[in-house]
Specification:
Layout (H helix, E strand, L loop, with lengths): L2 H11 L5 H8 L3 H13 L3 E5 L2 E6 L5 H5 L7 E8 L2 H10 L5 E8 L17 E7 L9 H17 L4 E4 L3 E4 L10 E13 L2 E11 L15 H5 L4 H16 L7 H9 L6 E5 L4 E10 L3 E6 L2 E5 L3 E4 L4
Parallel strand pairs: 3-4
Antiparallel strand pairs: 1-2, 4-5, 5-9, 6-7, 7-8, 8-9, 10-11, 10-14, 11-12, 12-13
Helix pairs in contact: 2-3, 6-8, 6-9
This protein binds biotinyl-5-AMP.
């Protein structure tokens, strides 16, 4: 999206503005304003022009301009109807030097989970990767995954779904009557980065939320917002999610605060867990999460601090 169109959207988000005032504010001719207004109309915006100027009366359901319109987060949106993987596209953009971009797709044909696992991404989901260049050391990157989980859980709760977080990167919904032993996966996160010993070069937080998708189109053990509460407004859902993520990871924010929010949403703490790491299997009770996102597990032989692995919630013994 060009800068003039973005500035126009920002200006119109505050209410009606006259053509001359817009031309003045954007530093372009009135004809250029009119051209951009027409371009917005072609993208599905309904723009009324009355005595008090131009006014947006309806916004398209989804797409780059729709998501950027009214978004209170410092990102521009790159939207695709279909893409192999938004994380892959974010990586390409990173190689071109881009930052503060969110790649969004309606459908992914090669969505990936951790360890190159497949991630089903039919049309109707929220598949998005936030590309940023934080001035932070690589050791703090796990907190971005936790922040993404908090952002998804909060947006899901606002949509009426009682989502919880399973360490480190799954957003779950408990079974009928809140039965925690039959949890289903609503969303997953794949964070990728490049950097040097003391500084992150770029980071892509890939978030996959099964939004307006039939549960039948997903692997067993998965659920969707549609299956839980019916279809949601994906535009508003993604905006809320991005706003929380931006707020939690802002340059002047203390990333450690993410841990408190994460604890509030976690369903792993207090549970018996089985964690498979690349080198061993650890079983015990998850008692806390610790900077920068490690899980503290009380085992029969003492306390263990686990920084990475696949976690399974076990039935209480
Ligand atoms: C994850 O991996 O949970 C990370 C998923 C990240 C997906 C996003 S979508 C936007 C961005 N672009 C990408 O290409 N990826 C990111 P992991 O913890 O490894 O879980 C993967 C496992 O979850 C699979 O092996 C399946 O068992 C299951 N699975 C696959 N698709 C699923 C879905 N849509 N919903 C729930 N579970 C799924």
């Amino acid at each position: 999206m060009n800068e003039t169109k973005r500035a126009l959207l920002d200006a119109l988000a505050d209410g009606p503005v006259s053509g001359p005032a817009l031309a003045d504010r954007l530093g372009v001719s009135r004809a250029a304003v009119w051209k951009q207004v027409e371009a917005l109309r072609e993208e599905g915006f309904e723009v009324a022009s009355g005595d008090d100027g131009y006014r947006i009366v309806d916004v398209p359901a989804y797409g780059a301009a729709a998501i950027e319109y009214g978004l209170e987060a410092p990102y521009r949106i790159e939207y695709h109807d279909q893409v192999p993987s938004t994380n892959h596209r974010a990586r390409e953009l990173a190689a071109e030097g881009a930052s503060d971009v969110v790649v969004v797709a309606d459908e992914q044909t090669g969505g990936r989970g951790r360890l190159e696992r497949e991630w089903s991404s039919p049309p109707g989901g929220v598949w998005a990767s936030v590309l940023v260049r934080p001035r932070r050391p690589p050791s703090e990157v796990p907190l971005y995954t936790l922040a993404a989980a908090v952002a998804i859980a909060r947006a899901a709760r606002e949509a009426g779904v009682p989502a919880t977080i399973k360490w480190p990167n799954d957003v779950l919904v408990a079974g009928a009557d809140g039965d925690a032993t039959t949890e289903r996966k609503l969303a997953g996160i794949l964070t990728e980065m490049e950097g040097e010993a003391d500084r992150v070069s770029w980071l892509a937080a890939g978030m996959g939320v099964n939004a307006n998708v039939d549960a039948d189109a997903l692997p067993p053990g998965a659920t969707s917002l549609r299956a839980e509460v019916g279809d949601v407004d994906r535009r508003v859902f993604l905006q809320r999610l991005l706003e929380t993520f931006a707020e939690l990871t802002a340059e002047d924010a203390d990333l450690r605060d993410v841990l408190d929010e994460w604890r509030d949403y976690a369903s792993t703490l207090g549970r018996r867990v089985r964690i498979e790491t690349p080198s061993e299997v650890i079983e015990g009770e998850a008692v806390d999460v610790r900077f920068p996102g490690s899980l503290v597990v009380q085992t029969d032989t003492g306390e263990r601090v686990v920084s990475a692995g696949d976690c399974e919630h076990l039935r209480p013994s």
